[in-house]
Automatic annotation (TrEMBL):
Organism annotation: Cyprinus carpio carpio
Alphabetical UniProt keywords: Leucine-rich repeat, Repeat, Ubl conjugation pathway
Keyword Membrane: no
Family membership noted in the UniProt record: Belongs to the zyg-11 family.
Protein name in the entry: Protein zer-1 homolog
Occurrences of domain Zer-1-like leucine-rich repeats region (ranges): 202-342
Swiss-Prot/TrEMBL GO biological process terms: animal organ development
Comp. bias regions, Basic and acidic residues: 765-780
């Protein structure tokens, strides 16, 4: 059988790394001192590959796993190069502090990529000098504070400032003492986003051996200094750098370049216009180019062949057939060509193996892949275009699309625009059309990034997109691995007094689905999270608005589900004024049949708990239940559930019936009449996982009507759904208890006749178990239909 998309298992190395990080004190560390400081065990020695993986995976877990807690002193574990070796690290965002770099200052790092580490200051920059003898690749992309120190604060080696002082707002001044002098092995350098206060020419002068340089968004008033690397530089990135004639002239001298990126985010912000002449000069002068990105540029004159010539033949990547004139001079197709947000991406013949653009799915996916890490503003646009493809057309590269969107959402957890467009795209990429092609592992990754988005943003659009995406999954089965977390998030969404109607409806629907068909331990755990109180609050708000909508009905349905065989949740319902809300709803909405069914189903669960039944035994409640016996709402369901509630109350005997009105005998007569009016072949909107609450009513003589209700319920279920309920009844010992009904003198004759029919039905089923007339439905029933 062919494996599904994304079904490759995690490697043993990956599994072990995550386990060790989640259990540091049980594996390779111990706690020391009053502050329980982490220390590496003295008998642990870790090679470079494992140390690098531990740190890099630690960063991923802190960013993407809400259950994973950041460990104080984690980097200190790697302070001694005799027991740990670090060589290649990728650290990002606000989690990284100056002290973390100082902790690993004795390591011989070869690669250090710091990305958007806004809390790393000039103090951390000084630590970089510890690595100058070994460092070959360094990225300081988006580290806006690293070249600054706090005004008036001495920056002594090893100085220690507490958190309060670090957060204090002080005027920043450029640290003029830092120099790249001595970084003789450095070959790759990324200074993207370098503040304008710094003189990049002076900063880079001590680095004659660079082969790769990224100066994205850096001000270059005198670009001629770049020619000092014209014989060495193989890669130059100048994204969002304002192009000038002087800069173009300089670039044309960089004859060894293999990768050149002169792209822009936005055409409107540039004074420069790309011409056919300039493009031709680049192709002619930079003969070693294999990768070129000119995204975001306005083409001043016509660079493309006439439309009739462009339409000739199948799409080709041969330079001689190029629809873009300057690229006809290429000796071979480029490996990569960035044409995103240009008109050039729309032509037929483009001489490159991989093209970014917006013409088709392949170009859009290439754009998401190329720009996600350091250009979220472009990735956001491309994901939006992928959203349109998935929504309107058909996504033909599903696995790649899902993995790219998941990566973007993980990488930019704090970027609202990415979260909005990414979650919207996931909704369409996980719907029924694509479901059969997706593995369990891939769908779990989707669920995790969706929950990350819900956790990070309380904004309406993100919440709605995330909730809708979760509706594409089988609930509760596919969400069970994150069951506690998803319930907490949904309850948090439902907390505000006035929530967006659509989000409220979807969130309550999800809550209802999550507590339907799960074991009692799950229900009790969710009850302790405040589930019962939250649902009752929603009902209270809807009552105040005099509105019985889907939220009202879903909330009662959810309460019905969560109280099933869970006494603690039933008690919470009573303690939180649930019975008064029941009466108010009944009075306010006398004609809402599904509402009545859901409320009576819930009260049936409460009535099954012996310790709680006295709270139902009041004149007001008994009168209401008695009146509902005559209800024809939702077929027999409301009448059936009202009779079920009364059957459990009657089962406690006449001694507990202390009220004068209504009389016990009168209510029992009404119960007999109601049961005799029901059609035993009625199809049901309910799903029993156990018959135990019904079976306990059989072998008794204090309330024959309760015995009759229980027998009727069993006969109805085994007759209409034999393949589902005959095995369950046999398994739970129901046939033996029905035999006892036949032996009891107090049992009514019609009850005995019905008991025999149930037993015959089970006997017949054992002889012919191939009945296929199943149509079982759970409590969710019609409530599960969402108008989205």
């Amino acid at each position: 059988m062919a494996s599904k998309a994304g079904d490759d298992p995690d490697s043993l190395m990956s599994l072990c790394t995550v386990f060790c990080l989640k259990n540091l004190r049980r594996t390779m560390c111990y706690s020391e001192g009053e502050r329980n400081q982490l220390q590496l065990r003295p008998d642990v020695f870790l090679p470079g590959e494992i140390c690098d993986r531990l740190v890099n995976v630690y960063m991923d877990l802190v960013h993407t796993d809400s259950d994973f807690e950041q460990q104080d002193g984690f980097f200190q574990l790697f302070s001694d190069p005799r027991s740990t070796r670090l060589t290649r690290l990728q650290l990002r965002e606000d989690l990284v502090r100056d002290r973390d770099l100082e902790a690993i200052g004795k390591q011989d790092l070869m690669e250090l990529h710091l990305s958007c580490c806004s809390h790393v200051t000039a103090r951390g920059l000084r630590t970089l000098c510890s690595f100058r003898h070994s460092l070959r690749s360094l990225s300081l992309f988006g580290c806006s504070s690293i070249f600054f120190r706090k005004s008036g604060a001495p920056l002594a080696a090893g100085e220690d400032q507490d958190e309060a002082e670090e957060e204090r707002l002080q005027q920043r001044t450029v640290d003029l003492d830092f120099s790249f002098q001595g970084f003789n092995r450095l070959r790759l350098l990324n200074l993207g986003g370098l503040p304008a206060e710094l003189d990049v020419e002076t900063l880079l002068r001590p680095l004659p051996a660079l082969t790769s340089l990224d100066l994205s968004a850096v001000h270059l008033p005198r670009p001629a200094f770049l020619t000092q690397w014209k014989e060495r530089l193989a890669s130059l990135v100048l994204y969002n750098v304002e192009l000038t004639e002087e800069l173009i002239h300089t670039l044309l001298q960089m004859s060894r370049l293999r990768h050149l990126d002169i792209s822009r985010e936005n055409q409107r912000t540039s004074k420069f216009k790309m011409t056919r002449k300039i493009l031709s000069s680049i192709v002619q002068s930079l003969v070693h180019l294999v990768s070129l990105d000119i995204s975001g540029h306005i083409m001043l004159d016509n660079c493309t062949v006439p439309a009739f010539e462009d339409a000739v033949g199948r799409p080709s990547i041969e330079p001689c057939k190029s629809s873009i004139y300057p690229f006809q001079e290429l000796k071979r197709p480029l490996q990569f060509l960035g044409l995103y947000n240009t008109t050039l991406c729309n032509v037929t013949h483009i001489p490159a193996h991989k093209v970014t653009g917006s013409k088709n799915e392949d170009q859009i996916l290439n754009a998401i892949e190329a720009y996600t890490e350091q250009r979220p503003e472009l990735a956001h646009r491309a994901i939006n275009q992928l959203f349109d493809i998935a929504r309107i057309q058909h996504c033909s590269q599903l696995l790649r699309a899902l993995q790219l969107v998941i990566t973007a959402l993980k990488t930019h957890k704090y970027d609202k625009s990415i979260q909005v467009t990414g979650s919207a795209a996931l909704f369409y990429l996980t719907n029924t059309e694509y479901r059969s092609d997706q593995s369990v592992r891939l769908r779990r990754q989707v669920i995790q990034v969706v929950l990350n988005g819900m956790e990070q943003y309380q904004e309406v659009t993100v919440q709605r997109n995330c909730c809708l995406t979760l509706c594409n999954f089988s609930i509760p089965e596919e969400l069970e691995f994150q069951y506690h977390r998803v319930n907490l998030l949904l309850l948090k969404i439902l907390e505000p007094a006035r929530q967006d109607d659509s989000i409220q409806r979807i969130a309550v629907h999800l809550c209802n689905a999550l507590v339907c068909q799960v074991d009692n331990d799950h229900k009790e755990a969710v009850g302790k999270m405040g589930f019962v109180k939250t649902m009752l609050n929603l009902i209270q708000k809807k009552l105040q608005d005099r509105m019985c909508d889907q939220v009202m009905e879903f909330s009662w349905s959810a309460l019905w589900n969560i109280t099933d065989e869970t006494p603690d949740n039933c008690q919470m319902f009573l303690e939180c004024n649930g019975m008064n809300l029941f009466l108010d709803c009944l009075k306010e909405f006398p004609d809402k049949q599904e509402l009545h069914r859901n409320m009576l189903g819930l009260l049936g669960n409460v009535a099954e708990v012996k310790a709680l039944r006295p709270q139902l035994l009041t004149k007001q409640f008994i009168t209401v239940f008695s009146e509902l016996l005559d209800s024809k709402a939702d077929g027999i369901e409301v009448s059936y559930n009202a009779c079920g509630v009364l059957s459990h109350i009657m089962f406690d005997g006449s001694d507990v019936w202390t009220m004068e009105e209504p009389k016990r005998s009168h209510v029992m007569d009404k119960m007999w009449a109601a049961i005799q009016s029901w059609d035993v072949s009625s199809r049901r909107n309910i799903n029993y996982r156990s018959f135990e609450p019904i079976l306990r009513l059989l072998p008794q003589s204090c309330a024959p009507v309760s015995q009759h209700w229980a027998t009727w319920a069993l006969y109805n279920l085994v007759s209409v759904y034999p393949s589902k309920y005959c095995p369950l009844l046999i398994k739970e010992g129901g046939v033996i208890l029905l035999q006892k009904v036949l032996e009891l003198e107090s049992s009514h004759q019609e009850t005995k006749d019905m008991a025999r029919k149930v037993m015959e039905q089970c006997e017949n089923f054992k002889e012919d178990p191939m009945d296929t007339s199943r149509n079982n439905r759970d409590y969710l029933s019609e409530d599960s239909e969402l108008d989205i």
